[in-house]
């Protein structure tokens, strides 16, 4: 049934998935969404994989490859890091990515980013990376990153496809459409650079199940909706 819905959407909506080549002709920026231990490293937290996860592993590999390519060229990179205070919960999810713990740190394969001059790191305490970039003085680290680098195209990768990545992408599109992100034009999601976690039913009390296989089957639908904006 899900596949039939996806096929119907693909037929009816003016959306085309395609390959992408980035060159220096257009100022591009890379956004890494929450590629931290608590989502990606085995047994690193409540929402981390319990064993090796092919989907998450491939996402990390692709993200590292892109990050290397951007840093080699000194192109701008923005990395959001999910980081929560122990006493501030985010239902319906269990406690996760507690600030100042290893689960809130970048995965080992990306920790070198902390020493790169073209990289902006932003710890956030909410699902949406755009909202999580708002400072106490009202400024927004993400908006400043786009404008100070004169970014015209943003490439998003990370985890989770249907939660943090989707929210960050949608809010970015809304902000672009309202003129808050000039000169940004294109918002791009690299599907092979995205993954989601797996929470089977009855894993945690009062926590909604989040089966990876089902979410992954809806991935095309998610990106079709995003690309319509």
From TrEMBL:
Domain of life of the source: Eukaryota
Annotated GO MF terms: nicotinamidase activity
Domain Isochorismatase-like positions: 30-198
Residues making up the signal peptide according to the UniProt record: none
GO BP terms in the entry: pyridine nucleotide salvage
Family: Belongs to the isochorismatase family.
Name assigned to this protein: Isochorismatase-like domain-containing protein
Species the sequence originates in: Prunus dulcis (Almond)
């Amino acid at each position: 049934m899900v596949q039939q819905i996806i096929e119907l959407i693909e037929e009816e909506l003016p959306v085309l998935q395609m390959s992408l080549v980035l060159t220096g002709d257009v100022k591009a920026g890379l956004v890494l969404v929450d590629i931290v231990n608590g989502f990606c490293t085995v047994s690193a937290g409540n929402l981390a994989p319990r064993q090796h996860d092919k989907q998450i592993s491939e996402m990390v590999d692709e993200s590292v490859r892109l990050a290397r390519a951007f840093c080699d060229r000194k192109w701008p990179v923005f990395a959001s890091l999910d980081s929560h205070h122990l006493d501030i919960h985010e239902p319906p999810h269990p406690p996760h990515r507690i600030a100042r713990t290893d689960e809130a740190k970048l995965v080992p394969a990306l920790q070198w980013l902390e020493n790169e001059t073209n990289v902006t790191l932003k710890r956030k305490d909410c699902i949406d990376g755009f909202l999580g970039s708002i400072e106490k003085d009202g400024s927004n680290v993400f908006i400043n990153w786009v404008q100070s680098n004169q970014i015209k195209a943003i490439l998003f990768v990370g985890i989770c496809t249907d939660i943090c990545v989707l929210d960050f992408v949608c809010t970015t599109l809304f902000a672009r459409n309202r003129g808050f992100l000039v000169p940004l034009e294109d918002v791009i999601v690299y599907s092979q650079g995205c993954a989601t976690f797996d929470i089977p039913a009855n894993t945690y009390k009062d926590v909604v199940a989040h089966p990876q296989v089902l979410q992954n089957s809806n991935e095309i639908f998610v990106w079709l909706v995003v690309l319509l904006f």
